[in-house]
Design goal:
Blueprint (H helix, E strand, L loop, with lengths): L3 E5 L3 E7 L5 E7 L4 H5 L6 H25 L16 H32 L8 H23 L3 H21 L6 H4 L10 H17 L6 H10 L1 H17 L4 H17 L5 H17 L14 E3 L1
Helix pairs in contact: 2-3, 2-9, 3-4, 3-8, 4-7, 5-11, 7-9, 7-10
Length: about 300
């Protein structure tokens, strides 16, 4: 997300973005689950894979909106009209970006580790050890990737907004008041984070691929691609279960690695960034009929349909 935060509930998603002029632009819309998610909402694993697809689509839409706001001129047209935009072109950009991101992600985190471990397979007798080494390589690539992109200024700012999002959610779940001063006191880590999901996917992939042994290379490559939705669905169900039982000491221990990993993908946010997260959360709460959005008249808050 560019200079913004996306918040979602079961029924609504809201994206708040800091405009170059200084005010905050908010876009909220109801969530309409995809056809696959509706059809399999009660079927474990499949519902998880479908839900993750819907989340990816929502994320890309919010990213496109934040990019649009971030490059807008500081002064709007004098007639009050919104800048011209082509919805079809924007939709095409979202789908192309999502498809390209998935292809590159699967290639980097699933196919590349396989070819790297192939160079060591001659000296590895055990199928399980081979898959374990592949999983370790996959984890190393993930950690290196997150660490390197975190050095980029734009990504570092994104990680700060990520921290603002977590602090706001933690404050809400703790029953605390959603003010900047109160939210800033909360942790920037959260068990239902996408970072936890990535780690769980990497760990589950070791188990899933170990069940296949070491078949011929084409089958191994195909399995790394075709089983990604299955692993994602399993990861979704596991995180959902752990988050629902996080008061259990054993569950707390199991969640710890994911929370540690968030030290890479979150940064301490500024008060202005927390303010944006609070506005996004307030819009979701208002859309759900649970509360009114916090007032920020000094920001010239702008709501878009």
């Amino acid at each position: 997300m560019l200079d913004g935060v996306m918040m979602r509930s079961r029924k609504c998603v809201a994206t708040a973005v800091r405009h170059p002029a200084g005010h905050v632009v908010v876009k909220a819309e109801p969530i309409e689950p995809g056809r696959l998610a509706r059809a399999f909402r009660r079927v474990p694993v499949i519902r998880g894979a479908a839900a993750m697809w819907d989340i990816l689509v929502l994320g890309m839409k919010s990213l496109a909106f934040s990019a649009e706001v971030s490059v807008e001129p500081e002064e709007k047209p004098t007639n009050g009209a919104e800048p011209d935009g082509d919805d079809t072109e924007a939709g095409g950009f979202i789908w192309v970006s999502l498809g390209l991101g998935l292809v590159l992600g699967i290639a980097l985190f699933f196919v590349v580790p396989l070819f790297l471990v192939r160079t060591l397979d001659a000296g590895i007798e055990s199928d399980f050890v081979s898959n374990l080494v592949e999983g370790v390589i996959r984890l190393a690539i993930l950690l290196a990737y997150l660490s390197v992109i975190g050095l980029l200024p734009d990504i570092r700012r994104t990680f700060e907004y990520h921290g603002a999002e977590h602090k706001t959610v933690n404050a809400l779940e703790a029953g605390d008041e959603l003010t900047v001063a109160r939210v800033m006191r909360h942790s920037a880590a959260h068990p239902r984070c996408g970072t936890n999901f990535l780690l769980v996917v990497v760990l589950l992939s070791i188990l899933v691929f170990a069940l296949l042994g070491r078949p011929d290379l084409p089958i191994r490559v195909g399995s790394r691609i075709l089983l990604v939705p299955v692993i994602a669905g399993l990861a979704f169900e596991l995180i959902r279960f752990l988050a629902a039982h996080r008061g259990n000491p054993l569950v707390t221990l199991l969640l710890a690695p994911g929370l540690w990993l968030q030290a890479i993908t979150t940064r301490t946010p500024t008060p202005d960034q927390v303010e944006v997260a609070i506005i996004a959360m307030g819009q979701v709460l208002r859309s759900e009929g649970l509360a009114t959005a916090p007032a920020h008249a000094d920001l010239g808050l702008e709501i878009r349909a």
